[in-house]
Amino acid sequence: MDLTRFDVDLDGLTDGEIVDRLIALHALKARVEGAIVAATGAFDRRMLHAADAARTTAGWLTARVDQTRSQCGRDVQLARTLREMPVVAAAFTVGRLGRAKVDLLAETCTPDIAEVFAEQEAYLVGEVADLRVTDANRFLRAWHQAARLYVGSIDPDEPVEEQAPRVAVSLAQTFDGRFVLDGEMDAEHGAIVRGAIDAEVDEMYRVGIFGPDDGLSPAERRGQALVQIVARRGHVGTKHGRARPSVEVICDEKTLRGAPIEDTEDLRTRICELADGTPLHPASLSRLLCGADLHRLVISADGEVLDAGKDIRLANRAQRRALRFRYARHCAFPGCDAPIDWCEAHHIDEWDPDPTNGRGRTDMANLVPLCRYHHHRVHEGGFTLTLQPDGHVEVTRPPDDTGRRCRITPARTWRRPVVLTGP
């Protein structure tokens, strides 16, 4: 595709050409941004600003390019940081990483874990390259906390430093009598409030108060749900019929036992976070475990059986919990960001009670979570799903006018799916 011309008549392109051009332009944008930062670094390293009597590289750039001084300053700082991050710099130059992910990686490489970062730099680049930016952020935050535990920058037995304010809510009345609600809270308390509101929204959908054509925005639905919770002073379950925990935590067995991180390979296997991916300090984990219900999520052959065969059609609670973890709490359809609580367990091969064939089992190898929209698109819209051994889902479009089927446009993934196996 010729990207040297930017005056292309877009109305004269086919749908496929528009898609290819848009993706290619974003890839080109990443390469251009990488080249700009690299050139900025070379300019700064040679101190070429001095030839024009400018005080700094950022000051020289501000007077000559269409960027603010703070933007120019960030370019200079990133160029200096990338001198110590050769793998990230190379991936940025060829467009494998965009600016947003490069900034996240640069922020992750703090002085206390610089040596560990250098050792695992290639691994980190490989992990975040195909993730969405938001999920790359969650992954790097979790890795950063685990790395700090590994090098001893964090004492797992020390209490977490309080962040002020932990919880603060303001409710002010306006001149015409309306109220304005504003608040700030830490991750733990925010998870409690959001979980209660999301559960109430689910219930109001279930009983018909909310619907797809109710004309309400998501914010308006959350507001009405909050009022219902306060008025009732109670809690409801999710649409799956189970009580929603006030705070849901996911951690590996070693972290649960308090075992120290042994080496960088062990570091990669550790997970300790809230259900939305926010990293959780080990001291906070210990406190939450005092009054918690524990559920074992098996991801190896010697644990809980997650395969139910053909005796039941619907996924059981353990399988739903495993799907929640495996697909990063989202719909498995590529490009969809619907939360897992909006999803239903879908059989890749349609459930078949006939025990004489091996298809249609209610097993993890045959289940994916799909939101209602994509569940209908698969069953009634003609889209076909194929579950790969690594947990990724490939989607094929319905046949076109010539009978040809092709895959949908690839999308960034959420956190890499975890391969779950039964005995």
Describe the structure.
The chain is mainly alpha-helical and 423 residues long. The chain folds into 3 domains: 10-151, no CATH class; 167-232, no CATH class; 301-423, no CATH class. The chain is 41% helix and 9% strand. It contains 14 helices and 8 strands. It has helices at residues 15-45, 57-62, 69-82, 86-93, 99-108, 114-128, 133-151, 187-206, 218-232, 253-257, 264-269, 282-289, 317-326, 372-379, and strands at residues 167-173, 179-185, 249-251, 272-274, 343-347, 367-371, 384-387, 393-396. It has a two-stranded antiparallel ribbon. Strands 3-4 form a two-stranded antiparallel sheet. Helix 5 (99-108) runs parallel beside helix 7.
Assembly state: single chain
Q: Radius of gyration, Cα only, in angstroms?
A: 25 Å
Q: Strand content of the residues, in percent? A: 5-15%
Biggest beta sheet attributes: 2 strands, antiparallel
Shape descriptor: globular
Question: Mean of residue pLDDT?
Answer: 80
Q: Name the poorly predicted regions.
A: 298-311, 417-423
Structural class designation: mainly alpha
Helix and strand run: HHHHHHHEEHHEHHEHHEEHEE
Task: Identify the strand order in the major beta sheet.
Answer: 1-2
How many domains is the backbone divided into? 3
Q: State the distance separating the first and last CA atoms.
A: 49 Å
Enumerate how many helices there are, as a single number.
14
- Let me know the number of strands: 8
